[in-house]
Amino acid sequence: MGVPMRRRSRLLGLSLAALLLPACPDEVSQLEPTGSESSTSVASTGLATATSQGSTSSGVVDDTGTSSSSSAGDTAGSQDCCAPHDAVGCEDPDLTTCVCNEIAFCCAFEWDETCVEQALACGGCGAQTTTDTTGAPEPVCCSASDQPGCAEDPALEGCVCGLDAFCCDQQWDDQCVQTAIRQCAAECGGGADACCVPSGSPGCPEDPMLEGCVCAIDPFCCDEQWDGQCVEIANDDCNAECTPVGGGDCCMANGSPGCDDMMVQDCVCAIDGYCCDTDWDGICVNEAQYECMIDCGLPPANEGDCCVETPGPGCDDPVVTDCTCMLDDGCCLFPWDAGCVQLAVTTCGITCPGVDPLPPCCLPQMAPGCIDMPVQDCVCAFDPFCCDTQWDDICVDEAQMDCMLDCGGGGGGGGTGGSTT
Q1: Which of 315, 366, 324 is nearest to 342 (CA)?
Q2: pLDDT tens across 355-383, in order?
Q3: Which long-range contacts link 92-100 to residues 24+ away (Cβ below 8 Å)?
Q4: pTM higher than the cut 0.70
Q5: Would you tell me how many other CB atoms lie within 10 Å of the CB of residue 385?
Q6: Three-state DSSP state, 159
Q7: Mind listing the pLDDT tens digit for each residue in 19-62?
Q8: Is the dihedral of CA 69, 75, 76, 82 positive or negative?
């Protein structure tokens, strides 16, 4: 459906566990023709091993039904963690566990380049600092990553993820770095220049003197949010000498933080800090029109029959619109598509010709889990994300493919994404 997934999308690799386990795993081993047992389960160190006459196997079954073994030189758990190799796991058990908790492939098939990258993210392979554009060393947690968390500084990681679970569940992105700096006292540099950019969070700890000057004039800047007006005060009254930022059209994705209308920018960034911290993208444009009431030429909202797809968000029944958007906020930011109609019929009590309610667990939702417990337990056995974080479209697909859920051939609904004019 129309859920904005800019920084909420799932990382590839989470569902690789589905390759390693049966649909609803009631057994995790099989007997080879010789009578020896080959396991495909992940051991406490994260290694998937199988024993057959003393040899080590990754547990992969070939076309004959027998378990294929790694070569004698590629014994599981004996290879360098910092270099790709054909064996599963690596020589450091703790690092292996950390990596395989995130990417099960590394302990079931081979230790490839992705596993090495995750090893770095787990604090191995000498991952201590990165270097910024000036050549000065910078803490790793001050750099965005495509991996979740920042194991190099557990205290900082805990602070950030306590404020934004996305940073540990899915990806340590630019917004997580901003949270680390602005709300968790990370020393990431940036100085006064960082105070010249509006943020979705309060204060500007990069420059305490400038922060003190601004907040003495307008306490809102330290109590609530460092918004565009705070930047103006910094520039006009506190000698920050800020270069104007966010000069792009608020009604277009402009490739930089913020936009050229301070009131619109502040309104949007109070809802979605990403738009001022990282990038004014298509989702920010939709938020500008539908949440902050600027006319960007997008289709009007809340018009049209709730049973019919419309080019604008919402439908003409406010109760149905509110109910649907509580489950999928994309239905109030993007076109009211077939997925929104299906969601309204399934969960909000309306009747639409030709649209039947779907069984439980057939629709993605922002909340974790679903109400069909056998299906939920089956899916979450190999993809804990679905019960820990969100029952998303990947969970719906897994429920159909691996857990015998019949959604009538449909998946998790449509999806419009953040398209703009």
Answers
A1: 324
A2: 989 888 998 877 899 989 999 999 999 99
A3: 92/124, 93/45, 95/119, 95/122, 95/123, 95/124, 96/45, 96/46, 96/47, 97/44, 97/45, 97/46, 98/122, 98/123, 98/124, 98/151, 99/46, 100/42, 100/45, 100/46, 100/47
A4: no
A5: 21
A6: helix
A7: 333 334 443 333 333 333 333 333 333 333 333 333 333 333 34
A8: negative
